[in-house]
Design goal:
CATH class of the domain at 2-45 and 264-438: Mainly Alpha
CATH topology of the domain at 2-45 and 264-438: Multidrug efflux transporter AcrB transmembrane fold
Strand order of the largest sheet: 3-4-2-5
Structural class: mainly alpha
CATH superfamily of the domain at 2-45 and 264-438: Multidrug efflux transporter AcrB transmembrane domain
Strand content: under 5%
Number of helices: 20
Shape: elongated
Distance between the termini: 120 Å
Largest sheet: 4 strands, antiparallel
């Protein structure tokens, strides 16, 4: 049946070549009209089966994350403030978060004390006189001036000079407290590295305190290129201006930034790869056949077949995803094999003295059978991906399988027609098999014939090579990190590596929900105990650890008279 089918295709190309080329022209026009409608899906979320997609889950992180660094903390904070203010006004931005306002905790600072700290506060409130302060300092309740205990002599007494220095320090502290009573309470509940990744001023900060983070939430939750690219470009433009004004450095990462850099790398790489692969294949083809006609007769069906394939994909699927965007090099690499085998058989028949029609028929019935079988089995192998649950691989199977079948059909139908037109019109650029075979191919053919006459040598060599390569199989690993596939110098990848190195913050999280705070606290503790978990954040991280117990201790604190309203220094100078 295959021979009859291939014989009919051969006869059609020889007898009615212009009809075949006319039909090809019509298909080309239709495909050219369809290809522009082929969308490029740039979303990672879209290639995940719907039932397993996390993007629909509450808390899925699709924020744009800015990493702000400068030479000092004041500049870094000012840069973060300016960037947040500018981004908040940008279109497409739902909200910006970069700082926890300390005023939210004012009046509630004591609730964030530990029980030991609360009891120390009670003990401090009961102190009367300098002697009590000295005793409290010796007991570890003196706070910031505890280092002055080093001034004590062996008998526990304080010499005059040390005592005067201590008294001066205590008076300075009292005066500072009277000038700004809130100075010692501003950071309570915030500057706690084990509870929240924020600094004393409430800014989201890295573990080393050198970087401030700004989270930008888009209005549309997606990682599609056409939706996030304008936002990312705008954010980077704003960041460049702010960084220049404050002499700081700003980088962006997060799903939106990674998606933009990923798509731009893929688009640029796919175009370059497609062009380079096509040029190299044609050059090798020209060297192999030493014929301009071979290049045209092989390249034209391949190029038109790829165009038809993408037109068919536009009808059958409507889009390409991150995997199937690289289909062009696959079509070139596999599709050129069809043309090579078919033209090689025709070339050999013609150089052997066969007439044009007989050579085409022999090539189609001989090499054509192998080409048809190989093309169908390869397309079938890709088609097996249609049963997988992963959308990306299902689409890869459809695109690659359908595309190869279309390219195969283009080669089988157009090659006889093109060769016939070239033969009739005497166009050398459409003719193959003229004159003797190139001299350089004869020694190679002789060596191959001699080698195939020694099967055990061939099999032994294959076995040795297989054994050597098998040693490296154990080193093959699955790379689950998509960022590792992106250019290492991409701005979002550099920022992602920096962010991943920070143990206190990440833009990639797993989200869990709890019915109440008690359950949440238990679940948080359980997650923190897992060796594979780097950091856990929850409402429990910001809630006071034991507010009821602290309130009981605070209520037991004796009420003391208010301190003098005038600064202590002024009162002393008035004495």
């Amino acid at each position: 049946m295959r021979e009859r089918l291939l014989g009919a295709i051969s006869a059609l190309g020889v007898e009615r070549p212009y009809a075949v080329l006319g039909a090809a022209l019509a298909l080309t026009l239709v495909a050219a009209a369809l290809v522009p409608s082929l969308e490029i899906s740039t979303s990672r979320f879209d290639v995940i089966a719907g039932e397993t997609s996390f993007v629909e889950a509450p808390g899925a992180r699709t924020d744009l994350v800015a990493l702000v660094t400068a030479d000092d903390d004041a500049t870094t904070r000012a840069t973060a403030d300016a960037l947040a203010a500018r981004l908040a006004e940008a279109p497409g931005v739902r909200g910006v978060f970069h700082r926890v306002d300390p005023a939210m905790f004012r009046g509630r600072e004591l609730l964030f004390l530990s029980e030991d700290e609360a009891r120390a506060m009670v003990a401090g409130a009961e102190l009367r006189g300098l002697g009590d302060w000295v005793g409290a300092a010796r007991a570890g309740l003196g706070g910031d001036r505890a280092e002055t205990l080093d001034a004590l002599d062996d008998d526990g007494a304080i010499d005059d000079e040390a005592g005067l220095a201590w008294l001066t320090a205590m008076l300075e502290e009292a005066e500072a407290w009277q000038r700004d009573p809130e100075r010692t309470t501003l950071g309570l509940g915030l500057d706690r590295r084990d509870r929240a990744p924020v600094d004393a001023e409430g800014y989201l900060t890295s573990g080393d305190g050198r970087t401030r983070y700004v989270l930008v939430t888009p209005e549309v939750v997606t990682d599609r290129y056409d939706a996030v690219a304008p936002l990312v470009r705008q954010a980077r433009a704003i960041a460049a201006e702010v960084a220049s004004e404050h002499d700081a450095r700003i980088r962006f990462t997060g799903y939106p930034a990674l998606a933009v850099d990923e798509v731009e790398a893929i688009r640029g790489g796919s175009l370059v790869t497609g062009v380079v692969s096509g040029v190299l294949v044609m050059l090798l083809f020209a060297l192999g056949f030493r014929s301009r006609g071979g290049v045209v007769v092989a390249g034209l069906p391949l190029g038109l077949g790829m165009l038809w394939a993408f037109g068919g994909i536009a009808v059958a699927l409507g889009h390409l995803n991150l995997l199937t965007q690289a289909a062009a090099p696959v079509f070139v690499g596999l599709g050129i094999d069809f043309a090579v085998h078919l033209l090689s058989a025709y070339d050999a028949a013609r150089r052997g003295g066969a007439a044009h029609a007989a050579a085409i028929d022999a090539a189609m019935r001989g090499a054509g059978k192998a080409i048809l079988t190989g093309g169908l089995t390869t397309a079938g192998a890709f088609g097996a991906l249609l049963v997988t649950e992963h959308d990306a691989f299902r689409e890869l199977g459809l695109v690659a399988g359908l595309g190869l079948l279309v390219v195969l059909g283009a080669v089988l139908f157009l090659t006889p027609a093109l060769l016939t037109v070239g033969q009739r019109r005497g166009w050398l650029w459409l003719m193959v098999g003229q004159g003797p075979a190139p001299a350089w191919t004869r020694p190679a053919e002789g060596r191959l014939v001699a080698l195939t006459g020694r099967p055990w040598v061939v099999l032994g060599g294959v076995a040795a090579i297989t054994a050597a390569l098998a040693l490296g199989v154990g080193r093959v690993r699955f790379e689950a990190n998509v960022e590792a596939l992106l250019p290492a110098d991409a701005p979002s990848v550099i920022a992602a590596r920096q962010l991943r190195a920070d143990e206190t913050f990440s833009s990639e999280v797993l989200v869990t929900r709890a019915p109440d705070l008690a359950t949440l606290a238990r679940r948080t503790a359980a997650l923190e105990a897992l060796p594979s978990v780097g950091h856990v954040e929850s409402l429990a991280s910001f809630a006071p650890p034991d507010s009821q117990r602290i309130l009981q201790i605070a209520r037991a604190t004796p009420v003391t008279p208010s301190p003098p309203t005038a600064p202590l220094g002024e009162r002393l100078r008035g004495l």
